Amino acid sequence: MTDLQALFTQYIEGNAKEQERAAKQIAQTNGAQAFLMEKLSGAQARAALALLGRAARRESVRWALMDKTQEIVPLLTSEDAKTRKNAAIVLGQIGQRAVVPALCGALSKETQQFVRPSLILALGQLGGTEAQQAVKALPLPEGTDKNTLAERDAIQKALSRLAPQKSRTFTGFAAPRPVWLMPVNGLIGSLLAEARAKHIEVKQKGSVVEAVTRSLPSLYALRGFYEALLPFAVGVKAEPEALAEAVEAGGLYALLCQMHDGSGAFPTRLEVRGPGIDRAAFASKFFARVNGAHFVNSPSSYDIELRCWIKNGQATLSVRLHTFQDPRFAYRLESVPASMHPAVAAALLYDHRRYMKQTHTVLDPFCGAGTLLIERKKLMGAKAFTGLDISPKAFSIARANCHEAGLHAKVFNRDCRGFHSDFGYDEILCNLPFGHRVGSHEQNERLYDDILQQWPKILRPGGFVLAVTNDKQLFSALATRHGWKIASQMAFSAGGLSPTAFLLQR
What we know:
By secondary structure, the protein is α/β, with parallel strands linked by helices. Helices cover 42% and strands 20% of the residues. The chain folds into three domains: 159 residues, Leucine-rich Repeat Variant, CATH 1.25.10.10; 145 residues, VC0802-like (2-Layer Sandwich); 164 residues, Rossmann fold (3-Layer(aba) Sandwich), CATH 3.40.50. The chain is built from 20 helices and 15 strands. It has an eight-stranded mixed sheet with strand order 2-3-1-4-8-7-5-6.
């Protein structure tokens, strides 16, 4: 049984690591909200509210607090500023619109600038006419100090929720322009080969594949890339003010208007990537400097994503258009943990297409969301498709995704070990469980040993296995021990891991 009082004391008196550990345990303990609510009437209200804010990230906790808001509202007028701030955060998370008048009243009287953003964001979360009017009436504060930028950001974020900008419609490029296709790291050759086969002119440019086209939709005939970006500026000084100046001086707004109908500002998200970057502060300073009539900071609902990479003090800026929907993977209604990205599946399969035939029968014994089966069908089709997964949830998701993709596959909820087939399979394709994601090295050793002995019984003569795993040494050693020929190994990076695709033959 969790000792909540001991954890609470540790949170108040411990060092930073002890506080974080205690906060995490309290947030994950069922019923902790009742214990914390009892603390609101005493001197420890500030800490209790901070912990309630952590716990209220769980839906079950928010539901349990629905009828407790009137016990929290009085703390909006506490003499302690941090208590007022924490109370606003919790009320916003709970989601009871009845507290909007109290939040509006607190905002009108709040003089501590570091508290105001939490009140504003809470109003944005709760919504409604009164909240919208209150936030719209706020002037955007001028200045570049931390608290001023935080309030400015809060107003813009709240408005993006309360009165979202009307989305612009992509109409196309006015003239040919470069587009960067972002490949799977390690599989760029597959994308280049796919482009050549489909007569789409591209060239490798560092770690990206560049096409020059007037038709953005035509590039989505290619399946082996994650996303398409429009390069805009290279070699900009890695400071938010310099980036804002490059956006304005380079005419990005005019360029985007040529591609879209309608008028007005574009709801925009700035994504900054690079070592040692305070992303929130960088974005705040950028939007404080850029023309607000052109780009509105709206990180939760946006048409335009500005992608900024920073390296060695230099920034590269590109644009991702969310006004154009990628049609390729619309079949993916749901996914499962550790699912393979469809672009990764497509690139891997394309690189091994010479082993495949339309007359083949295909099995995925760890089918997950069904991605490999569907992408195999998209590549060239096959005589029959079968998927297995031990998880009932994955089984349901795979069936739904296959149906959405128009793939008539037989999907079964069962353990692949011991699975037998009277007719066998020409291709066994799978993204294997591996220790970093779903289990342990020891569990995988037993599993790999079992399947590598079983597969010869269901693999047809001349057939092959294409298996992806991050437990590379283990899989390679066991495959060799059980008499498999490792015809090829292809290393790549995806999802923060560096797995290998093994092609096995008998």
